[in-house]
Amino acid sequence: MTDVTADREIAAGSGEPSLHRVMGAWLLLLFIVGDVLGTGIYALTGQVANQVGGAVWLPFLIAFAVALVTAFSYLELVTKYPRAAGAALYTHRAFGVHFLTFLVAFAVMCSGITSASTASRAFAANMTASFGLDGLGDAGVTIIAVLFMALIAVVNFRGVSESVKLNIVLTLVELSGLLIVIFIGMWAIGSGQGDVSRAMTFKMPAEGSVLWPIIAATTLAFFAMVGFEDSVNMAEECKDPTRHFPKVLIAGLVITGVIYVLVSISAVTLLPPDKLGEGETPLLNVVAAGAPGFPLWIFGFITMFAVANSALINMLMASRLVYGMSREHVLPPVLGRVHVARRSPYIAIAFTTLLAFGLITFVGGVPQLGGTTALLLLCVFTVVNIAALVLRRESVEHRHFRTPRILPVIGALTCAFLAGPWTGRDPAQYAIAGVLLALGVGLWLLTVLVNRVSGVKPPDPVRKAEGHSVG
């Protein structure tokens, strides 16, 4: 299927122009690496150390393994159905329950917006610290974060080509910060400084085994691994998603997993776990300890732009998800409109940006929103892994990636386990997720009403023939 043919199929019957297919393999790789890297590793390394002790690398490695297993399910589904709606589309096709589809879509959208909102507040906090604007207080941080989110919306509106190009620059910036930490750590190890043996020590709990602190730390570290799932929502803007996604997604996850392990080892080599866990700038403290002569303001700027990249990519994902679900008639059709000149989903961009404004203004920071983001996505990943198994009975005309059957089973079990309260997750995260899902139920009822008034009946995802037959 050519790009032109695919564009015509997507736009057929809608009267709307299609999205631009501008992303090749290298742009897609940078998008994935840039999305996974960012706020999580820069902010959570110290919190993971507080949970597990010196073996900071282990929770990141476990989180990488869980994410990789789930990524194989995504690969089968995105190459089978290269559409913009991602997890919600797979749920829709597998189960045909519109209420479940909407909840999955809403959970994924919220995960992107909460992550982007947290990153925007982190950007504003780093900006006020870098320019000596601490006197502005929390109100000043909120105003700057809202203005920054508005700038992200402008870049997003201009189109995916401009957004992805900016993503390249920001990805290289945030990658340079992590490479600085790795280089300083490796230099310290090679010169006999620091204490690399800390990387094999664990924080022993007063009661029970070390297993549960590792699991609790993994639930934190998992926030740093999420982001790979955002790429499937860009499928309609990739030149050849069926051919590119498998090798690019796996490569992107491996690259980020290796970087996380090396950063963790470097960090705990230079700072003992209790010092690493102090404050909200763990990697900045690592650089100060390992290279006292290094200009810390430079690393502060790098951190600021790293979280900016997280905000940009997550808002790209959220708006494309809303656009894709509107085209599936699960959200009101107005959200699927594409700007004629810019070829971007401008109504979806405005909708997700307004939600982000509200979160920036009224909701908390990284620990609460980051943990809630991971919780929501773990639930979504559980459903996606099950959907991959269900949809194996459905065939398509084109060739696509097939994952070993055992991997979705392992993925569903591990994601469901990490989402449970037995992991030691902060109860506040369940409360925030509950409020968000309650809001989702309200929006679902509104969507049903809009569809009935307009006379639109959502399609049957299992039986409709759109380039495939039921096997």
CATH topology: Amino acid/polyamine transporter I
Helix content: 55-70%
The total of beta strands comes to: 2
- Uncertain runs with pLDDT below 50, 5 residues or more? 1-14, 461-471
Instruction: Name the CATH superfamily classification.
Output: Amino acid/polyamine transporter I
CATH class: Mainly Alpha
Report the total helices: 17
Mean pLDDT: 80
Task: Tell me about this structure.
With 471 residues, this protein is an all-alpha fold. Helices cover 69% and strands 1% of the residues. It has one domain: Amino acid/polyamine transporter I (Up-down Bundle), CATH 1.20.1740. It has helices at residues 3-11, 25-36, 39-52, 57-80, 87-95, 98-130, 137-158, 160-190, 211-225, 241-270, 273-276, 282-290, 296-327, 346-362, 366-390, 406-418, 427-454, and strands at 394-396, 468-470. Strands 1-2 form a two-stranded antiparallel ribbon. The two termini are 21 Å apart. Mean pLDDT is 80; it is low at 1-14 and 461-471.
Quick overview of this protein structure:
With 471 residues, this protein is mostly helical. The chain has helices at 3-11, 25-36, 39-52, 57-80, 87-95, 98-130, 137-158, 160-190, 211-225, 241-270, 273-276, 282-290, 296-327, 346-362, 366-390, 406-418, 427-454; strands at residues 394-396, 468-470.
Topology of this structure?
Blueprint: H1 3-11, H2 25-36, H3 39-52, H4 57-80, H5 87-95, H6 98-130, H7 137-158, H8 160-190, H9 211-225, H10 241-270, H11 273-276, H12 282-290, H13 296-327, H14 346-362, H15 366-390, E1 394-396, H16 406-418, H17 427-454, E2 468-470
